[in-house]
Write a structure and sequence with these properties.
By secondary structure, the protein is α/β, with parallel strands linked by helices. It has three domains: about 5-55, no CATH class; about 55-100, no CATH class; about 125-170, no CATH class. Helices cover about 20% and strands about 15% of the residues. It has a four-stranded mixed beta sheet with strand order 1-6-8-7, with no helix packed on it. Strands 2-5 form a two-stranded antiparallel sheet. The protein has a two-stranded antiparallel ribbon with strand order 3-4. A hairpin with a 2-residue loop joins strand 7 and strand 8 (about 140-145). It starts with a strand and ends with a strand. The model has no long low-confidence stretch (mean pLDDT about 90).
Length: about 170
């Protein structure tokens, strides 16, 4: 659709451009790309992982935490859309109890593709299983995943062509 962007978890222009060169002429995935995207260690695998699951960074000094399912993690999924480099604690997409255990130190050597500029098209994404009443992530970013499968609300945004999104355009169940 003209005027907006839609992605499952992370809009990363350089990854999108690198993968677009490998698509079929109708912009669908071809067999070669599917095979490479399923092989850990390939650029295609890492690109698809990032677009579908979000951007992750390693924690410092071998720090490990347990995720909501009890799995040990040494990487954190981050708020890749942030236009300022923050601390591990502030950038992490984790539950509050885990957040408190993360270092409140500045993230070093962070990827230069972090951030989604305010002048870019509105972006709609899912994946993050947010809680509470739907709210904008940024003035041009809305997450539409509010945990319906785990008792949250079904959420949508009524977009009428605006470039600055508005809180009152969310539609959701209570």
């Amino acid at each position: 659709m003209e005027g907006i962007r839609v992605v499952h978890a992370c809009w990363n222009q350089s990854i999108i451009e690198s993968l677009s060169d490998q698509l079929n002429s109708d912009n669908t995935l071809n067999l070669d790309l599917l095979v490479k995207a399923s092989q850990k260690g390939t650029d295609q695998y890492q690109g698809i992982e990032t677009l579908l699951k979000g951007m992750e960074i390693p924690l410092p000094d071998g720090l490990i935490f347990s995720d909501k399912d009890g799995n040990s993690r040494s990487n954190i999924r981050i708020k890749w859309w942030s236009n300022e480099v923050l601390t591990y604690q502030k950038m992490a997409m984790v539950d509050d109890d885990v957040r408190e255990s993360l270092p409140d130190t500045l993230i070093e050597n962070i990827d230069n593709s972090i951030g989604y500029p305010e002048h870019e098209k509105p972006l709609f994404l899912g994946h993050y299983w947010l809680k509470g009443n739907p709210t904008l992530i940024e003035n041009n970013i809305a997450c539409l995943d509010y945990s319906i499968a785990k008792g949250g609300s079904l959420c949508a945004y009524r977009w009428d062509g605006e470039s600055i999104l508005k809180e009152d355009k969310f539609e959701h169940t209570e």
